Amino acid sequence: MQVTISHQEGMKFEAKTSKSSFIIDCPVISPVEYFLAGIITCSATDIVLIPKNQDKTVTDLVVSGDVVRNETAPCKFNTLHLTYSFNSDGDDTMAARWVMASLETYCSTINTIRDTTAISYSITHNGKLIREDEKMISGGGTNIDFGTIESCPS
What we know:
Elements: E1 4-9, E2 12-16, E3 21-25, H1 31-53, E4 58-69, E5 77-88, H2 92-106, H3 108-113, E6 118-125, E7 128-135
Parallel strand pairs: 5-6
Antiparallel strand pairs: 1-2, 2-3, 4-5, 6-7
Helix pairs in contact: 1-2
């Protein structure tokens, strides 16, 4: 995978991939917001695809992420809480397994940050809260000091 970023004007950048391109317009949407959106979307795609592979259907999927970051640079993610809400024709145990499979195995973006970020999740399935503030089995974050860097405002 390769992504190329080209400065356009002001604080606008074009991101090009082998499949497409898009504009990153700082500070309208910061790179950190794109990053968080990518993390959430990665897991959301799993929550659609894993059930589909089991001949199940997910509808009304909404995934939100709440991040707590360092107050000083680098403002890395300290904690990430993901809230999943969806309906499906699977049972509650299956729904929880789909989310856990995404978090623990399939979602590469979450697995990229899990050693430095404490990740938790909640699941509402078919209108019923089935998991609340559960912690990921693996990972859990560390206190690694990345030093001071200068970066795009976020």
